[in-house]
Amino acid sequence: MVNLRMCAPSPGLPxxxxxxxxxxxxxxxxxxxxxxxxxxxxxxxxxxxxVVTNTADxxxxxxxxxxxxxxLRIGSRxxxxxxxxxxxxSLEIDPLERIYVLEGQAQEIRVFAPDGAHVxxxxxxxxxxGEFNRPLHAQFGPDGHLWVVxxxxxxxxxxxxxxxxxxxxASPGGFVMIxxxxxxxxxxxxxxxxxxxxxxxxxIALVRYDAGFTALDTLTVPDDPVERExxxxxxxDGGVAMASVPFSAAFRWRLAPSGSIWGMLSGNYRFFELxxxxxxxxxxxxxxxxxxxxxxxxxxxxxxxxxFTDQGGKVDLSKIPDxxxxxxxxxxxxxxxxxxxxxTKREDQGTRLDVFDPIGRYLGRxxxxxxxxxxxxxxxxGSTLVGVTEDELEVPFVVRARIEKSSP
Length: 408
Description:
Elements: H1 15-25, E1 41-44, E2 50-54, E3 67-74, E4 88-93, E5 99-103, E6 108-112, E7 118-122, E8 137-140, E9 146-150, E10 155-159, E11 165-170, E12 183-184, E13 190-196, E14 203-209, E15 215-220, E16 230-234, E17 240-244, E18 251-255, E19 261-265, E20 270-274, E21 280-286, H2 295-304, H3 306-309, E22 327-332, E23 338-342, E24 352-356, E25 362-367, E26 379-381, E27 384-390, E28 396-404
């Protein structure tokens, strides 16, 4: 039996978030859904901030855990042609389930049918109309056209699915950011990064545009709240080389489909959601058991720092922590679920993803039949996952998988 209660939204929160937070805190569930058994807690602070605390126990039962099955793999190790990829920068899929691959080395977009057959190639290297010069990101806009970020040409090109150039918008460029932090939100607003003056380090802000590409405002992105230690090498000519301490915690942020900005503190499995104005809407945590840094890990880390030590840099291995951080990366699907790449054992790397519902409740861990790369960002639309995987020679392949979803 389902018990329904009237739950009032919390002041200061968007209606959809406050209703969900209040309903869960009060034990309310939407009509037609059984009340799940969840071990976490949800608290709403006086400021309106929602605090979601998860244990390590999933809401899913073993029978309800989502399952992923590979359906299609596009790529080649040595065959010359459109399925031979060098550097995949971005992925997109259209309503007909055609896959669009932005190939960074060839500087073109390759379109593949749902069965993996090559349909067409869009663009080529150059500075003219419809040409690309180091394109970084491609995304379908609310107009149904493909918006291609081309910072070396200082523009965003708008292209239809046949490959015809429809429009071009001037956009500040001249710098490369991988992955590209901008794009569309669900309301059809477009976000583009711009440099923010700073004497010590490279910083950016996000310019928010309306559907006509008229600038609305400039948003400040969150800074890392923790001062991270790095190995630093300064050359006599004023140059600086820096290397992160292996296995140290990190901070990442990204734009959510809702238009809010999420930050991730990888050391303690903590996320926070900010409004475009910088107010905290929500924090989300999950209990975890940190993995130890082994002797094999230390040896590998020392080898990976050879680029730095070969230049004369000094590395203090005692600064490497005894345990690894909790998370590596995160993304959102089109239903508002949060997908997290957790730090796992070496043999499980890329094959495990933690899933949280739009409220922030930990649903459970999904096992993949392949190792999913964190770059470029995978796409999850409905029950379809499209991403990149690599073979044992690190050759990239585009993979499409079906997600079998069950109710908790």
